[in-house]
Amino acid sequence: MNGRRRNGKRTKFGLRFTWKDLLLYGFLFFFLLFLMMGIGGFTAGTGSSNIPISKLVSDIRDKKVEDVTITDSRVEITYKNGEKAVSHKEPNTSLYEILKNAGVDPQTIKINVRDEASVNAWINILSSFLPVLLIIAFFYFIFRQAKGAQENIFSFGASKGKTFNKDFSKTTFSDVAGVDEAKQELSEVVDFLKHPEKYRAMGARTPKGVLLVGPSGTGKTLLARAVAGEAQVPFISIAGSEFMEMLVGVGAARVRDLFTTAKKSQPAIIFIDEVDAIGRQRGVGIMGGHDEREQTLNQILVEMDGFTPNEQLVVIAATNRPDILDPALIRPGRFDRRVFLTLPDIEGRKDILKIHAAGKPFVKTIDWERVARRTVGYSGADLENMLNEAAILAARFGKKQIDMKDIEEAATKVKLGPEKKRMQSDEDKRITAYHESGHAIVSYFMPHADPVHRISIVGRGISLGHTLIPPAQDRVHETKTRLLEQISTMLGGRAAEELIFSEMTTGAADDIEKATQVARAIVVEYGMSDLGPINYDKERARIFGEVSQVSEDMQAKIDREMRRIIDQRYEAAQKILKQHRSKLDKVAAELLTRETLEGEQFVNIIKSTKTPEKKAGNKKS
Q1: Which of 160, 269, 412, 531 could be disulfide-bonded to 242 (CB atoms 3.0-4.6 Å)?
Q2: pLDDT on residue 590
Q3: For residue 204, how many other CB atoms are within 10 A of its CB?
Q4: What is the CA radius of gyration of the chain?
Q5: d(CA 443, CA 448)
């Protein structure tokens, strides 16, 4: 019989019984047997009519009966015409005597006597002992359950870490791209684990801990697996949240058990994912030093730098929030090294694309250089997801190979969500077209803004349209000028609505929120405003329980400075749109017709639309 697949192999269905199952089923069988005996035993001959004993004697006298079978007081009758019937006699009387007393010769019929004394004896025995056996079985299972619960209680202190032997991890550094500096740092850790004697000869010790820091999707977990694969040592993986339980002291007990297990397998690697779940700064919680999380953290600190040295045991931890970790955890002697993972640059993105493109049928004309430039700001996880979405899209349309159009659609889907054909009125489409055109026009006439990649009034996610303006190149620094131009671009949609319709809509809410965030960062984080190079951020003080150093008077100045920046950049956007009203109308009209404009099409429309106005700024193609 065919069955389901497991690990790529087809298995067969089958019944598997343990002795416990057999015992349970046996009890059920005897219990049903007991019930059957309680309602009259085996009622063979179901469907036969019941007749009184006098009717049986009369039928025998009339020679209608072929034979009878006697079982204790039960008399089963077979007539000559094939019919069957059942009758009952007194337990201590004989059918022979009944017939003689009625003047009927017993020799006229065949009488069979069935002796079931032994069967009845066994039934009597079972009926006596079965209730006792059922009670014993009931208490047995109750005690088994109680024992299991007790074992679960005492196993709370056991580590939840998953141990993988040295042959498990097939991931190596060749499977990781875009983080060359991080691989170089970790390759030294691998060499420490494989050749410790070389470093001991120079008086060096093995790094106790490596902290992987970086945004989500940059490959922290993948790097940890690659280290285990390269070093060929046991790898114990656990998440920070798996230390915590509702019982006090369980987290610390699990830490002790984790390190005890790892020490038995030295050299080994312990990987703690999302270490910030237990590594937050101490003393900022509402429970103080009695907090279960703090006790767990204290035990980790002792294990990593206690009296017992860990000669060949390396702890690798990953987090995307290093700013909230306790200083004692990240000091030298515990996490000796910090490896920072950033979003990949163009060369890193090309290498990542090559890794994830393996095994997928792409057309030969794919320009991976162009794809890498198109995906500025994408993490490794974003790129992998993008190529997977492109493969799904190509398969959906029955293609044999993945082309550039599929990749472009997948890249947009990863950042903005799937395309949605919402039912919009003509008025809503016109408002959306002018809104998105406003963003594009303002960006085009900003001297330092990046070129527009695509404009669309097709809804994606929760938005009714979008204007894609990805960075033209990888940048380490952002200037104040570019930040201010970004605010103007964000406010270009609201400015276009007010210019064309003399009205405001709710569609600009997200743009306003992002513009406000950038303006606030300029003032309170980057020190780029007239208030000077001072950090006024109150969020850190609120989160960590610190006393805010920003006075009410200074907060009012911050609010006024943010309002001044927003007002100035909104006026700049309005000025550009008024000067290039004809271009705004032309782009909006094309959007209403085509729904989507690529960057080259947008630039051609701008260049082909003649206006008497003097252009502000310089154009980009």
Answers
A1: 160
A2: 92
A3: 11
A4: 42
A5: 9
Distances (CA, A) of 346 to 181, 378, 438, 478: 15, 10, 30, 18
Q: Distance of CA 560 to CAs 486, 500, 530, Å?
A: 20, 29, 11
Range 348-356 contact pairs with CB under 8 angstroms and sequence separation of 24 or more:
348/177, 348/178, 348/179, 348/180, 349/178, 349/375, 349/378, 349/383, 351/177, 351/178, 352/177, 352/178, 352/380, 352/383, 352/384, 353/383, 353/387, 354/177, 355/175, 355/177, 356/383, 356/384, 356/387, 356/388
Burial track 349-376 (b if 16+ CB lie within 10 A, e otherwise) = bbbbbebbbeeeebeeebeeeebbbbbb
pLDDT surpassing 50 at residue 1 = no
What one-character DSSP code corresponds to residue 208?
Answer: S
DSSP for 268-292 reads EEEEEESGGGT-BPTT-STTGGG-H
Share of the chain above pLDDT 70, in %: 77
The rounded percent of the chain whose pLDDT value lies above 90 is 19
Read off the pLDDT of residues 26-41 as tens digits, 9 standing for 90 and up.
766 766 665 555 444 4
Half-sphere exposure of residue 373, counting CA atoms within 13 Å on the CB side?
9
- Catalytic hit among 230, 274, 436, 497: 436
Give yes or no for a contact between 276 and 181, defined as CB atoms under 8 angstroms apart: no
Does residue 546 carry a catalytic annotation? no
Q: Contacts from 557-560 at CB under 8 Å and sequence distance 24+?
A: 557/531, 558/523, 558/524, 558/531
Of 373, 334, 338, the residue nearest 353 (C-alpha): 373
Please name the amino acid found at residue 68: V
Which pLDDT band holds residue 474 (cuts at 50, 70, 90)? confident
- Chain centroid to Cα 89, Å, comes to 75
Q: Which residues are CB-neighbours of 133 under 8 A, at least 6 positions away?
A: 27, 30
**Looking up tokens 């780029």, which residue turns up?**
528
| Nearest residue to 507 (alpha-carbon basis) of 586, 599, 567, 429 | 429
